[in-house]
Design brief:
With 153 residues, this protein is α/β, with parallel strands linked by helices. The chain is built from two helices and six strands; from the N terminus they run E-H-E-E-H-E-E-E. It has a six-stranded mixed beta sheet, with helices on both faces. The termini are far apart.
Length: 153
């Protein structure tokens, strides 16, 4: 597939082919509607992927009504999982934050962890998205990505 960096320059350059897990982004809903048990489940999911699948890099973007600055972790780092916010829910904000920090071309995939408490979705980003939710997605769900229900006790 073409390297997106050069597309605006009318040059078609090949993209890099990566083997294994590259850079995984986690957009984590920390709004007031997300329970403590749901946050613990989100932490377990992130920890399992980080420790067992060993991606090259993991970036966490916490959000509620706003998105907070990305936190990056690499293999060997201690994953710190500290929720921020606890206000309302706005699904578009973490995608804007990823763009603001030039992560659109960095992410190989994003896993969006939420309780489904919003019905406004962003435009499709240039990376694949898995919408993992503990509840029903508002507005019938996004027009892009894959939906994965999270079940927990």
């Amino acid at each position: 597939r073409p390297n997106r960096f050069y597309l605006g320059q009318d040059i078609v350059m090949p993209g890099t082919e990566k083997i294994g897990l590259g850079h995984i982004g986690f957009m984590i809903d920390s709004s007031g509607s997300v329970s403590t048990d749901e946050l613990k489940q989100f932490a377990a999911e992130v920890n399992d992927i980080f420790s067992e699948l060993e991606p090259e890099k993991v970036t966490l973007i916490w959000f509620d009504g706003v998105a907070y600055d990305p936190e990056e972790f690499e293999p060997g780092d201690e994953l710190i999982f500290e929720a921020k916010g606890r206000g309302g829910t706005t699904f578009t904000e973490p995608f804007k934050k990823a763009t603001e920090f030039d992560l659109d071309d960095e992410f190989d995939i994003v896993i969006f962890l939420t309780d489904g408490g919003d019905s406004h979705y962003p435009e499709e980003p240039p990376y694949p998205v898995i919408w993992a939710s503990t509840g029903a997605m508002g507005g019938g769900g996004p027009d892009f990505g894959e939906f994965l229900p999270i079940k927990f006790d």
